[in-house]
Write a structure and sequence with these properties.
The protein has about 325 residues and is an alpha+beta fold.
């Protein structure tokens, strides 16, 4: 205590100096914090400016010219996209009258039946490709001729895709009702799906049912995908063409199971000439004599896991058409 008393002014000055040094340190720390925060904000602002400057259009650029270029790119893309939305020509083309449509319908139905025969595709007898209600008419409901002619062209295109894929039989095609006359047609000719129209396209649904093996199903799907018309497969259902489907065949007039010599399982004739296995014309009654089919001897070996069988396939296909340019 004596030393403090003797050096009182020194002690007071030192204490004041320590307080001032502490305050200066606190001030420096606050300044450093503010500078660090300011540096972070500056870096964020610089990054935002750099991002904006790299964008097109961006500040300091000719935005009007860039907008024109982008508009041209969009128009070019739309022009190229039109190649994938080629319309199917109506039958008959041009202005349609009752006389011209009636003649075109009969001619088209006969042509499709001939094409199916040439492609070895079975059809229901006297099949009119969903136009039963119009087949015998000479006068048609008012305003129905344009949509009917469009549908006739589209049904022809879809049927020819199925024929070209090598299916065994085409059970039918269903379309949307577009005429008052369609109320008099069989229900099996029409689908409950509806056409959809927006600002750009018309989407028309069809339902196609055919019988084939798995390779032909793949060919049908590929044919739709490679078509110059924009077909979209909306749904597909595949089931065995078993005895349970025999009643459907009988209703449509197709040969029932076992009704034809040399038939495939399911009642379809072999396109390669008779009974599968190389018997031209098949055996009487459709089955070989029992004596010619000895029971196979068990020699072991691999077990058959997958056996190809006739399948019944139903496809919901949508046709997308661009609306006419206004």
């Amino acid at each position: 205590m004596g030393w403090i008393k003797r050096n009182l002014f020194f002690v007071i000055g030192g204490s004041i100096a320590l307080v001032l040094l502490g305050g200066a340190g606190f001030y420096i720390y606050q300044g450093w914090s503010r500078n660090s925060q300011a540096a972070d904000n500056l870096a964020t602002i610089y990054g935002t400016l750099k991002t904006l400057s790299d964008k097109k259009p961006g500040p300091g650029t000719n935005n009007t010219e860039i907008a024109r270029d982008q508009q041209k790119q969009i128009l070019d893309w739309m022009t190229n996209a039109e190649n994938y939305f080629q319309p199917i020509a109506p039958i008959p083309p041009g202005v349609v009258t009752s006389e011209s449509f009636a003649a075109a319908l009969r001619r088209t139905v006969a042509q499709l039946n001939k094409e199916a025969q040439n492609a070895s595709v079975s059809l229901p007898p006297q099949y009119d490709f969903s136009f039963d209600a119009q087949r015998q008419l000479m006068q048609f409901a008012a305003g129905s001729l344009p949509p009917l002619s469009v549908q006739l062209g589209e049904v022809k295109a879809i049927s020819e895709i199925v024929f070209s894929s090598g299916v065994n039989a085409m059970d039918g095609i269903q379309r949307v009702r577009v005429s008052d006359d369609d109320a008099n047609g069989p229900q099996a000719n029409y689908t409950d799906l509806v056409a959809i129209t927006n600002d750009y396209v018309i989407i028309t649904p069809y339902v196609v049912t055919f019988r084939s093996f798995t390779p032909e199903i793949a060919r049908v799907l590929c044919a739709f995908a490679n078509s110059s018309n924009e077909f979209i497969i909306h749904g597909i259902n595949v089931e065995p063409a078993s005895q349970s489907a025999g009643s459907d065949l009988a209703q449509q007039g197709l040969p029932p199971t076992g009704a034809m010599p040399g038939a495939y399982p399911g009642g379809y004739p072999s396109r390669y000439g008779g009974y599968p296995g190389g018997y031209p014309g098949g055996y009487p009654g459709g089955n070989p004599p029992a004596a010619t089919m000895p029971a196979p001897s068990g020699k072991g070996g691999l077990q058959t896991v997958l056996k190809e069988q006739l399948l019944r396939t139903t496809i919901e296909v949508e046709l997308v058409k661009l609306l006419p340019k206004s």
